[in-house]
Write a structure and sequence with these properties.
Layout: E1 4-9, E2 12-19, E3 30-33, E4 56-59, H1 75-89, E5 94-99, H2 101-112, E6 117-123, H3 135-148, H4 154-159, H5 164-173, H6 175-188, H7 191-202, E7 218-223, H8 227-239, E8 243-248, H9 255-258, H10 260-273
Helix pairs in contact: 1-2, 3-7, 5-6
Length: 275
């Protein structure tokens, strides 16, 4: 059972998991940052895999999970939250993984605060809007969320056909646990965060060219079936001066569930290269 901890920075309270290293060592911590509509629960099955000589953490971004519902919700407030979180815990440098929206936050943090990160993993993410949801569908989803809360999206999610990749993730967690986690994450999410960050996902300036200046050793991970993020992943790997690309077969947008063993191998290979 993982214990939720809390730290405060002004009015913002951040919830996080924190697993200490199992044995003494000087290896830097590893921090995992979830995506849009996610939470630290997205890594709750995986954190213990990496805690040998390494402290491992995952936190809820503002408007998600058990952290404060405190706007404004922008990429730049999320970047500031990340750096403030590290400062509050006294972590001067770390390894970091950002998933989807979390990857958009992390790649911009690498550019603005390179000294804080000794390596990075960018997972199923993009340096520009990936074009996930048409504007009319986004507007319909926003209407549901504003009137019913984010949990109002659950029935539609359960009613749609699941891709093979998503079904593999469901099979990994178990049907009941998968939908329990979705319900928890949606019930905790601030509707304002859904609306504002959804707009940002659809409309934000590209940082692809700027990533050519990012010298942090980086592994880009993407599920082979995560079609919207394949081309952006290839482009990031080509642009960044010290980046490798790992494509996880039999996985979509959440390879930590959909092909968990291959995902673990990819993360362990990345961390093993860092000295």
């Amino acid at each position: 059972m993982l214990t939720t901890h809390f730290v405060s920075n002004g009015p913002l309270q951040t919830a996080y998991f924190d697993l200490p290293a199992e044995q003494p060592g000087d290896t830097l911590p590893f921090l995992l940052v979830h995506g849009f509509t996610g939470s630290k629960l997205d890594f709750s099955n995986q954190l213990h895999w990496f805690r040998g000589r390494r402290r491992v953490l995952a936190y809820d971004q503002r408007g998600h999970g058990e952290s404060s519902n405190q706007g404004p919700y922008t990429l730049y407030t999320l970047i500031a939250d990340l750096i403030n979180f590290l400062d509050t815990l006294g972590i001067s440098r770390c390894h970091i993984l950002g998933h989807s929206l979390g990857g958009m936050v992390v790649m911009r943090a690498l550019l603005a605060h390179a000294e804080r990160f000794c390596s990075a993993i960018l997972m199923d993410t993009a340096p520009y809007p990936p074009g996930l949801i048409p504007a009319n569908i986004r507007a319909q989803l926003n209407d549901i969320v504003v009137t019913e809360g984010c949990e109002g999206l659950l029935a539609g999610m359960r009613g749609q056909a699941q891709s093979k990749a998503v079904q593999r993730g469901i099979n990994h967690l178990g049907e009941m646990e998968h939908w329990r986690r979705i319900r928890v994450k949606l019930s905790q999410m601030d509707p304002a965060a859904f609306v504002q960050l959804g707009e940002i996902l659809d409309n934000h300036p590209s940082v692809l060219d700027t990533l050519r200046q990012a010298a942090t050793p980086t592994t880009i991970i993407v599920g082979a079936e995560d079609t919207p993020f394949l081309q952006p992943s290839w482009e990031m790997a080509a642009a960044m001066p010290d980046a490798d690309l790992t494509v996880i077969e039999n996985a979509g947008h959440s390879p930590q569930y959909e092909n968990h063993l291959a995902w673990r191998d990819a993360v362990e290979a990345h961390l093993g290269k860092q000295k």
